[in-house]
C-alpha cells in the first residue's frame, strides 16, 4: 500500500451510532452480518446514542475514551464504524485508539475485494478502493512536507505525499481505460443478442435476498450461493429456455444495500449496465425480512442511479417457505398481467409459476399466430424464414402459404412495412382465427 498503517487484525469491535435522522439510519443487525461476511471476529458491540455527530470523532470524546479502554482490555486491532467517516475522523480515532479504524464504506470494499473472482471484478474493486484511499493518504504520513534528500537529490521536488497522489492518479486512469474497454465489449455482446432477438432478464435485489439460489434453480447452474452478504459479485449470464418464448438470457448481478457507496455504483457501472439494458427485471425480495419495505426502496434508488428505474419489472417474493399460510402464487393486476410471484428458490417451490409469469411478461411484444400469405408476398415469406420465425408451414387450395410464426411484434411490423404495407391492417387481414 502507499501509506503506513497499524497492522490489521480480525478481532474487532463494532461501533453503531443510533441517531435520530431516519434517512441516515443504519441497521445494526445488518452491520453485524457485514462484519461476519468480511471475516471479522466480533468481540464487542458498542451502540452510541447521539443527536448530533461530532466533527472530530463522530462520537463524543467520552465514548472515545471508553472505547480506547475496551480496545486495550480486549487486545483488539480493528474498530469498525457502521457509518461513513471523514478522513480526519478516521485519523483522529486511530491516533487515540492506537488501532486500525474502518468505516462502513471500507468494510463493504473489503468484502467486495474478497468476493471478486474475474479480472473485471478485481479491476472494479481496485478502482473503488483507490478512489476511497485517495482522500485518506494524508493520514499515513507524519512527514507531510518531507522531500527526498541526499547527494544529488537536494533542491525543489515533490514530497512523498505528492508522489503517492501522482501514482494513485496514474493507476486510476489505467483502470478506467481498461474498464472502458470491458464496457465496450459488453455493449457489443448486448447488441449481438438484440440482433438475434434474444430477450435478456436480469435478477436484481437486496443482498442476500436469494438471487443466486434462484438463478441456479432456473438455469440448473452451479453459481456460488451462500447465506452471506454479497456472496455474488461478478455477473453471470446463462441461457434459459421458456415455452412460447424460446431462448432467454438470464443475468445474475451484484446485490444492493442501503447507502451503497456511490464510488461502488460508479466503479461497477459496466456490470450494472447488464441490468439497465434488460428487457425485464426480476426484483427478488426476501419476504421474510422484517425491513423488506426499506430494502425495496433502497433497490429502487440504486436502479434510479443506473437509469433502470423505468424498465419493466416483475417482483419475486422469495423464501415463502419461511412464512406460515402462504403458498406459491402469481398476483396479477386488473388487466391480468403478472406483477408478483411468491416462491421459494431454496425449496424449488413456485419456479414453474415464475417461468410462466416471465413468459407472459416477455410475450406481450411477441406475435404468435398463423398468417396466410398469397404467392405475391413470396419475398416476405422468405424474410420470415431468414429471420428464423417460421415454426410450421402449409398451403391452402389457392396455393397460398400458411406460415406459423413466433417473432417479436416490432420485427414483424418492420418486415411488413418494408413491403409497403400497413402492419396493423396486414396482420388483421391475414391472421387465421
From TrEMBL:
Keywords: Coiled coil, Cytoplasm, GTP-binding, Magnesium, Metal-binding, Nucleotide-binding. InterPro entries: EFG_III/V, G_HFLX_dom, GTP-bd, GTP-bd_M, GTPase_HflX, GTPase_HflX_N, GTPase_HflX_N_sf, P-loop_NTPase. PROSITE patterns: G_HFLX (PS51705). GO terms for molecular function: GTP binding; GTPase activity; guanosine tetraphosphate binding; metal ion binding; ribosome binding. Its main location: cytoplasm. Pfam families: GTP-bdg_M, GTP-bdg_N, MMR_HSR1. Its cofactor is Mg(2+). Residues 165-192 form a coiled coil. One of its GO terms (cellular component) is cytoplasm. Residues 199-366 form the Hflx-type G domain. The keyword Ribosomal protein does not apply. Mg(2+) binds at residues 212, 232. GTP binds at residues 205-212, 230-234, 252-255, 318-321, 344-346. It is found in: Cytoplasm. Belongs to the TRAFAC class OBG-HflX-like GTPase superfamily. HflX GTPase family. NCBIfam families: GTP_HflX, PRK11058.1. GTPase that associates with the 50S ribosomal subunit and may have a role during protein synthesis or ribosome biogenesis. Monomer. Associates with the 50S ribosomal subunit. This is GTPase HflX. It comes from Stutzerimonas kirkiae. The lineage of its organism: Bacteria, Pseudomonadati, Pseudomonadota, Gammaproteobacteria, Pseudomonadales. The gene is hflX.
Amino acid at each position: 500500500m502507499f501509506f503506513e498503517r497499524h497492522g490489521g487484525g480480525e478481532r474487532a469491535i463494532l461501533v453503531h451510532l443510533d441517531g435520530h435522522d431516519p434517512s441516515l439510519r443504519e441497521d445494526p443487525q445488518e452491520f453485524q452480518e457485514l462484519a461476519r461476511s468480511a471475516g471479522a471476529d466480533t468481540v464487542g458491540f458498542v451502540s452510541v446514542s447521539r443527536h448530533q455527530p461530532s466533527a472530530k470523532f463522530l462520537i463524543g470524546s467520552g465514548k472515545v475514551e471508553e472505547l480506547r479502554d475496551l480496545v486495550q482490555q480486549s487486545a483488539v486491532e480493528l474498530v469498525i464504524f457502521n457509518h461513513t467517516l471523514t478522513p480526519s475522523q478516521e485519523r483522529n480515532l486511530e491516533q487515540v485508539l492506537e488501532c486500525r479504524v474502518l468505516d462502513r464504506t471500507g468494510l463493504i470494499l473489503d468484502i467486495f475485494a474478497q468476493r471478486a473472482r474475474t479480472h473485471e471484478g478485481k479491476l472494479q474493486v481496485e478502482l473503488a478502493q483507490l478512489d476511497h484511499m485517495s482522500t485518506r493518504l494524508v493520514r499515513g504520513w507524519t512527514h507531510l512536507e518531507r522531500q527526498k534528500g541526499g547527494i544529488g537529490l537536494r533542491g525543489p521536488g515533490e514530497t512523498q505525499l505528492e508522489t503517492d497522489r501522482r501514482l494513485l492518479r496514474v493507476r486510476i486512469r489505467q483502470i478506467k481505460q481498461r474498464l472502458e474497454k470491458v464496457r465496450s465489449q459488453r455493449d457489443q455482446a448486448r447488441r449481438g443478442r438484440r440482433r438475434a432477438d434474444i430477450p435478456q432478464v436480469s435478477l436484481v435485489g437486496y443482498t442476500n435476498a436469494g438471487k443466486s439460489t434462484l438463478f441456479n434453480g432456473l438455469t440448473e447452474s452451479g453459481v456460488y450461493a451462500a447465506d452471506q452478504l454479497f456472496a455474488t459479485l461478478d455477473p453471470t449470464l446463462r441461457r434459459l429456455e421458456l415455452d412460447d418464448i424460446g431462448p432467454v438470457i438470464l443475468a445474475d448481478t451484484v446485490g444492493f444495500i442501503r447507502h451503497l457507496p456511490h464510488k461502488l455504483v460508479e466503479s461497477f457501472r459496466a456490470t450494472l449496465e447488464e441490468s439497465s439494458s434488460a428487457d425485464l427485471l426480476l426484483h427478488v425480495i426476501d419476504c421474510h425480512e422484517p425491513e423488506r419495505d426499506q430494502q425495496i426502496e433502497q433497490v429502487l434508488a440504486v436502479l434510479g442511479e443506473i437509469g433502470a428505474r423505468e424498465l419493466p419489472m416483475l417482483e419475486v417474493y422469495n423464501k415463502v417457505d419461511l412464512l406460515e399460510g402462504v403458498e406459491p402464487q402469481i398476483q396479477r393486476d386488473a388487466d391480468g398481467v403478472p406483477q408478483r410471484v411468491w416462491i421459494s428458490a431454496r425449496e424449488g417451490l413456485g419456479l414453474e409459476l415464475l417461468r410462466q409469469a416471465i413468459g407472459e411478461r416477455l410475450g406481450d411484444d411477441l406475435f404468435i399466430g398463423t398468417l396466410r400469405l398469397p404467392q405475391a408476398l413470396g419475398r416476405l415469406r422468405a424474410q420470415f424464414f431468414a429471420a428464423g420465425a417460421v415454426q410450421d408451414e402449409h398451403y391452402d387450395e389457392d396455393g397460398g402459404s400458411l406460415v406459423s410464426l413466433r417473432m417479436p411484434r416490432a420485427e414483424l411490423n418492420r418486415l411488413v412495412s418494408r413491403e409497403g404495407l400497413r402492419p396493423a391492417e396486414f396482420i388483421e387481414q391475414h391472421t387465421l382465427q
